[in-house]
Specification:
CATH superfamily: NAD(P)-binding Rossmann-like Domain
Radius of gyration: 19 Å
Order of helices and strands: EEEHEHHEEHEEHEHEHHHH
Largest sheet: 4 strands, parallel
Shape: globular
Structural class: alpha/beta
Strand content: 5-15%
Mean pLDDT: 92
Strand order of the largest sheet: 3-4-5-9
Helix content: 25-40%
Amino acid sequence: MASEGHEVVRLVRREPGAGTESRWDPDAGSLDPGVLDGVDVVVNQCGVGIADRPLTARRKELVRSSRVNPTRTLSIALADRLQRTGAAPVLIQASASGYYPTEGTGSPLTEASPAGHGWIAKLVEEWEREARPAADAGVRVVWTRTSPVIDASGGMFPLMRRAWSLGAGAKLGDGSQHMPLVQLTDYVRFVLWAAETAEAAGPYNLTLPDPTTNAEFSDELASQLRRPRLFTAPKAVLSTVLGEFGDQLLGDVWLEPRRAVDQGFGFLAPDVQTAIRFSLRD
């Protein structure tokens, strides 16, 4: 965001370093109201990784608290500010495609579709609910139900690129399951669009407008890297190793970004071929 000419202030839990940082304590619900002075947009992306470590009971609680507590603290602060001053920043609130069921529905899931029933879906529901005080008070809130974001700069994609480059890429199970994803460029562009578009409010699915399956993704990545895709990771093995997160990888989540498209947001990487091409750029 700073590269676009915006002044960015980061909220940190430690002693602030530069003048572009301010301290808060979301676990205690503590945020200095003055931090919001002159702020137009609050972007909340708090949350520890959900796929990088086993989901033990302790890890689950950290995953939950690192999302729920910051969201609650910001939501209450924004609602209070609106009530006191008559104005408050827009809240761009992180959410996830894990909100939806993974069983496969036979038709695309839209923002109006019901939530799933697993642990991750219930977590995302609670995460979104913590931003309701701000929305109910009249603050404009945008929930970004984001699919896994792919890019060379981080996340799982560099690891996948390395594996496929070595000829060790694999489709998951039979590969027929829909695989929601979004390229980082479009994620950042959407956040800016949502901040600047007065009509934008409520939940938005961030995923490819032209959906892909796991097999299509695997074969396309192999093709662009000019490597064979030789392997299949058995579903039974993955379910055992990955536990509850395996549902997100092996389940069929046919997701559609209907509200974003209907309201005029244009994806630069609308399909798997373009998304991978963008992500392979160094």
